[in-house]
Write a structure and sequence with these properties.
Largest sheet: none
Number of domains: 2
Structural class: mainly alpha
InterPro entries: MetI-like, MetI-like_sf, PhnE/PtxC
Mean pLDDT: 87
Subcellular location: Cell membrane
Number of helices: 11
Strand content: under 5%
Distance between the termini: 47 Å
Number of strands: 0
CATH topology of the largest domain: MetI-like fold
Family: Belongs to the binding-protein-dependent transport system permease family.
Keywords: Cell membrane, Membrane, Transmembrane, Transmembrane helix, Transport
Protein name: Phosphonate transport system permease protein
Amino acid sequence: MATAIPVLPAGQAKALDDAYQAAVSARRLRTLMVLGIIVVLILISANLAHVRPLTLFGNIGNFGSFIGKTIPVLTFGNFFADMREWYWNFPKWLGLLGQTILIAYLGTFMGAIVAFCLCFLASANLAQSRWTRIVARRFLEFCRTVPDIVFALIFVIAFGLGPMAGVFALSIHTVGALGKLFAEVVENIDMKPVEGMSAAGANWFQTIRFAVLPQVLPGFASYSLLRFEINVRGAGVMGFVGAGGIGQEFLVAIRNFYYTDVSAILLMIIATVILIDLGTEQVRHRLIGIGEHR
């Protein structure tokens, strides 16, 4: 059965249409104002940072020239000999790359432990007092705000050259980064188990153990693996200030214009990061349940 659609009086319909058009116009105006502010801020930032598009396009050839110099000459008839010449120092570079991975692993492990201990104090739903949360949050902010390479330089001055400085630097930065992420995971838990444990007379530590950890451990592990991948990249730069790893050898190659060595070391770092990314991605997916039912 057909249903008649009521028609508003012309005056009321016009008033509603005018109100709608006014609302749309106001929204468009706000959007244009926001876009205008963003454009102005971009222009101011570019000016203060001395970003010159003409200079960029005028000197882009230098970048291409440098990349071209790092590409070795590989011939089909003498391919393996050319590869041996390109990776002439492969055993040493491989050892330094392994040291870089171990620096990243140990820095991630130590930082994750401290972050695990502090995240419950920094979370709004579990912190026992407001001041405890404030102190924990500010400490985590300090740890992640100071660049890890600055920490590495400080530790190199304090303890001398070597991978220990890189481990400590990555550990501190990892505490700040993972502590924030862990705290956010804790703040998003279901509070009903926590309330049930508290009602049953459990203390704070028992509540964390039995009501919180089962909910957050997969997220903690996932973020820790992601941080390990990031720290591998960070550890590759630590050698620039003498904190161990392959970074120092990479810097020497750049400074001395050993072009083919630059590309050889860089490709090793890229390949390592790709392999670690693929491996940690599979582990993360298993932890959070992606692909279980495929």
